[in-house]
Specification:
about 1000 residues, Arc Repressor Mutant, subunit A, Serine Threonine Protein Phosphatase 5, Tetratricopeptide repeat, 49 helices, Sig_transdc_resp-reg_C-effctor, Tetratricopeptide repeat protein, TPR-like_helical_dom_sf
């Protein structure tokens, strides 16, 4: 079943599910006459049928054979009695599966309507809840009027969108339900209790009606922590309904609504209902008594509007509530104006902890931690008692001190806040205290305090506190390189933020989600989320967008967009210097230093030095890492290694596993010790892999494959990693092209399908060899795969008819020629590429990349992986081996005994790989792929019994019996040609892979 009201894309979903042999029909066309003969039926618009016809059609569908599948669409869920007529369970897909995410809305806006504004998608999604038809109405509006109020414009009477909602959605609702929805539309939640009190429906019927509205998509869930799971009308639909609310809804119904909301402990919609009913005093009383609860539930914008409509008041509590609500909606200037008379009065009569903390919070939201501290200093620590206001004051003070890098003071203040909170039972205060303590703790203590903060926030039903904790948990997961957890926590923070939160905190959640997505390789969404974060912060004041700019700088730097990265970093540096916010300034300086190291090393050093000198303990790893990369790019490998070591230590001290992994990469790049480099990269790989950082994992796999000591499996993984990085748009790693295998091996020798030598990525011209014997010497050494060949053997091969006394000198001259060709700049010791000792002469395959040697190693590595049960990884390597076998080794030396054994060794490795790959395809349900490989194998070796058997059984299993018999006949002919026993025709009845004889060789 696909259930959703009009405009959700049910028909599109039906078409996307249809198999090639399936049929899609309208339900009305199937009531009479025989049902089509097809393995799958897609039946649209079941709801247009009468109840009797609907039952008749379902009974006929139930009588279809068991192997026939069908999918139905309807605007409303079917009754359980109707569903019971169908055989087996029914899977229902609904609006939650069909809605567009905010990111999908952004893609639609950009691709179909040319709207690039990162904030537009959020506005459209908030107005439509991702309802596809409404999204298209909204997108067309935003493309024409970028600054339009989406909800108001789409719901305006007479517009196409309002007419469509009225005709296609509201007209299908029961009158009693529609009337109750009109009441709720201007108030907020639509609950079963509200429907029951406003209609003749009983309790069960009201609950069922709310369920139907949710499952059809008219209502959307708004789950709050620890509280009632609320449903609200999709905003555009609510506005259409509310257009005539004041005239259509009497005061008695609004009073009923107010009391229903109070019974469900929903104070803000209750206050709003009292206000609309004309009882302003009841509305004020509710805000005075439960204003903090309203703000915690995310109703800041509504509280501002409500209090403005209620008019001026002498109540200090209401004034403070309005000012704090203005801060939460991001109107920090308005909040400061609202606090101004309260501050003036406090300067005259004395400050209290609540006002001090609230004013500080406004400055902190503006990115002014120093001004926040001045506000907090309006009272002394002794004046802040252990009640809620005192706890919140200390929690705010600890956060501000930590932002300014005064960690020791922050720890003391946060510890007192926690102590006071534990002595009481105020869950909201406890959530703030533990959040502040988590800010100044490390490791498991930080995690523990965040968990306690989340528990307290959930118990209090405090969506804002829960959202802040989720933001902090995502930060912790990022630092611990647990990117799956970071994505989960950040997405939950964004979800809670959408319920209503301070824009600054919501922007941080978007930033953290962007960073987590960056690490898992989702660059498109990462960029978009970071752009949303920056845009939102800019609305709060320029001082707050530094974090998002640093994130954008990181995305652009990884993708090689140097100028965009530089612009982002430069702006972040300026903002960080102005605000003194070290968590912005230090990473921005370090990132900019890394970016500038190649083109302006002196400026890069100054930037890195500023980061080092200004870094607090938590930011020190970034500074050390930046300085290390600057030294490395400048060529100061020894100093780079020192700074890499410092980065490792400082990252370990603050449990920043992500920076630790990067520091280990720097260690590998800076050291001359291959064993140390391999260990460092291995540890970095483990960190990235455990955390799900797919891009960084691919980067380190590439770096490992570039190491001189890399084996065949390492190089195969590196090639695969290079392809993954290229697909993501990453073309360089640590300054090298991802496809530059010669970066690790300056000399490459290809013997498969032709002989070619490359130096520094360029082929060696034929004239550079000066003699045919020089090329032959390299070929002979290549055929030995790094094993030494005695001088006497080489002389005999190269000059078989000459006097050995003369050829020894010739060999020395030839050796010098070869070394000059392979190292024309004399950059390495003489034996770097071609070694010579008393045992003979050999290629040093630690420094020379030989394609045949790598292929044999990779074939063996894949076999080992299969033995270990890692079949998918083995399949990837075997496919790569097959692709790299461009032809026989040294085919231009056919008939030369010294080349024959080498050629056969490589060919045998390739054939073994093909057999294993065919066996894997057959065993994993890919018979067509297996058959192609098996035919190729028989072309290469028509007498391979195992391959014949596997081809026949694969064809039989695929139901291709005629082909199987022809393949069996060819098998019998091949065996007869070599006087081997004929095959057993029992194999023609096999439906599996058979016995152990099919094990790959």
């Amino acid at each position: 079943m696909v259930v959703a009201t009009a405009g959700y894309g049910k028909t599109t979903a039906l078409e996307s599910e249809a198999p090639a042999a399936g049929l899609r029909r309208q339900a009305v066309d199937l009531v009479a006459g025989p049902l089509p003969d097809a393995p799958w039926l897609g039946i649209d618009d079941l709801d247009v049928l009468s109840a009797g016809d609907r039952l008749l059609l379902l009974e006929r569908l139930a009588a279809l054979p068991d192997d026939v599948g069908f999918t139905l669409t309807a605007r409303c869920p079917l009754d359980d009695a109707l569903l019971a007529t169908l055989p087996g369970p029914v899977l229902e897909r609904g609006p939650q599966d069909l809605r567009l995410s905010t990111y999908q809305v952004a893609g639609l806006l950009a691709q179909e309507y040319g709207v690039q504004d990162p904030a537009a998608a959020g506005r459209v999604h908030a107005a439509t809840a991702g309802w596809p038809m409404l999204v298209h109405f909204a997108a067309d509006l935003v493309a024409r009027e970028p600054d339009a109020d989406v909800v108001t414009a789409l719901a305006a009477p007479g517009t196409a969108s309002a007419r469509w909602v009225t005709a296609q959605v509201l007209a299908y609702l029961e009158p009693a339900v529609r009337d109750a929805l009109r009441v709720a539309a201007a108030l907020g939640p639509f609950t079963a209790r509200l429907l029951e009190n406003l209609s003749p429906l009983g309790s069960a019927a009201a609950a069922a009606a709310v369920d139907r509205l949710c499952r059809s998509g008219v209502l959307v869930a708004r789950q709050r922590p620890g509280g009632l799971g609320l449903t609200v009308v999709v905003p555009v639909v609510a506005q259409v309904l509310a257009a005539a609310t004041r005239s259509a809804v009497g005061a008695d119904k609004l009073v009923t609504a107010a009391r229903s909301y109070q019974d469900d402990d929903l104070p803000f919609p209750a206050a709003r209902a009292w206000q609309l009913a004309g009882d302003l005093e009841a509305a004020r009383r509710m805000v005075e008594q439960q204003g903090a609860q309203m703000l915690a539930a995310g109703h800041a914008a509504g509280v501002v509007a409500l209090l403005d409509e209620l008019g001026a008041t002498e109540s200090t509590l209401l004034q403070r509530t309005r000012a704090d609500a203005l801060r939460m909606v991001g109107d920090t200037a308005g909040a400061l104006r609202a606090y101004a008379p309260l501050v003036e009065r406090a300067d005259r009569d004395g400050w209290d902890a609540a006002l001090s903390g609230q004013v500080a919070a406004v400055h902190y939201a503006c990115g002014e931690p120093r001004a926040a501290l001045v506000a907090l200093d309006r009272i002394s620590a002794d004046a802040a008692s252990g009640d809620r206001d005192g706890i919140l004051w200390r929690a705010c003070r600890a956060q501000v001190l930590a932002t300014l890098g005064r960690d020791d003071e922050a720890v003391t203040v946060a510890a007192q806040a926690v102590s006071d909170a534990e002595a009481g039972d105020d869950k909201h205060a406890a959530a703030e205290a533990h959040s502040a303590m988590a800010r100044v703790c490390r490791g498991s203590q930080k995690e523990a305090h965040l968990e306690r903060a989340l528990d307290a926030a959930t118990s209090a039903g405090d969506a804002l506190a829960a959202m802040r904790v989720r933001v902090n948990q995502s930060c912790l997961a990022l630092a611990a390189a647990r990117y799956g957890q970071a994505c989960t926590a950040a997405r939950e923070a964004v979800r809670l933020g959408e319920l209503g939160s301070p824009p600054g905190r919501y922007a941080v959640a978007l930033h953290n989600l962007g960073e987590a997505l960056l690490r898992v390789g989702e660059y498109g969404e990462a960029t978009w989320q970071l752009q949303r974060s920056v845009a939102m912060f800019r609305g709060l004041g320029p001082g707050r967008c530094g974090m998002g700019l640093v994130g954008l700088g990181e995305v652009h730097r990884e993708l090689g967009h140097d100028e965009q990265a530089r612009a982002a970093y430069l702006e972040a540096v300026d903002l960080g210097r102005d605000s003194g916010e070290l968590q912005v300034l230090v990473p921005a300086l370090a990132g900019l230093a890394r970016l500038r190291a190649a083109d302006d090393p002196d400026e890069a050093y100054r930037l890195a030095d500023e980061a080092v000198r200004g870094a607090s303990a938590s930011q020190r790893p970034f500074a050390h890492l930046g300085m290390g990369w600057v030294h490395l790019v400048r060529g100061d490998r020894a100093d780079a290694a020192i700074w890499a070591g410092r980065a490792v230590e400082s990252a370990r001290d603050v449990h920043a596993l992500d920076v630790l992994a990067e520091a280990l990469e720097l260690t590998a790049a800076a050291t001359d010790d291959p064993a140390l480099a391999h260990r460092a990269l291995g540890e970095a790989l483990a960190i990235w892999r455990d955390g799900g950082a797919t891009t960084a994992e691919a980067r380190v796999e590439l770096l490992i494959g570039w190491q001189p000591a890399a084996d065949g499996a390492d190089r195969s993984r590196a090639r695969d990693a290079a392809r993954r990085l290229q697909r993501l748009g990453i073309l360089h790693v640590h300054g090298r092209p991802v496809t530059d295998q010669a970066s690790a091996h300056q000399v490459t020798i290809q013997v498969l399908g032709g002989f070619t030598v490359g130096v520094g990525g360029a082929p060696v011209p034929f004239t550079a060899w000066r003699s045919r014997q020089a090329r032959t010497l390299v070929k002979v050494l290549a055929a030995r795969r790094g094993r030494p060949v005695s001088r006497a053997s080489l002389c005999e091969l190269l000059w078989p008819d000459d006097d050995p006394a003369k050829t020894a000198h010739r060999l020395s001259v030839l050796l010098a020629t070869v070394r000059g060709v392979l190292d024309p700049g004399r950059d390495w010791p003489a034996e770097h590429y071609v070694g010579a000792d008393p045992q003979g002469i050999r290629l040093d395959l630690a420094h020379v990349a030989l394609d045949a040697d790598a292929l044999v190693h990779d074939a063996d590595a894949a076999a080992a992986l299969m033995d270990a049960g890692e079949r998918e990884r083995a399949r990837e390597i075997l496919t790569d081996v097959d692709g790299r076998y461009r032809g026989g080794a040294l085919e231009d030396e056919l008939g030369e005994e010294w080349a024959d054994g080498f050629r056969e060794e490589v060919r045998a490795a390739w054939l073994r790989s093909l057999r294993r790959l065919a066996w894997l395809h057959a065993g994993q349900g890919r018979p067509a792929d297996a058959q192609v490989l098996l035919v190729r194998l028989l072309d290469a070796d028509p007498y391979d019994t195992n391959v014949h058997r596997l081809l026949v059984t694969t064809l039989v299993r695929g139901g291709r019996h005629g082909e199987a018999r022809r393949a069996f006949a060819r098998w019998a002919e091949a065996m007869d040609a070599v006087d081997a026993p004929p095959p057993d025709d029992a194999v023609l009845g096999s439906s599996g892979l058979g016995s152990g004889v099919l094990t790959p060789r």
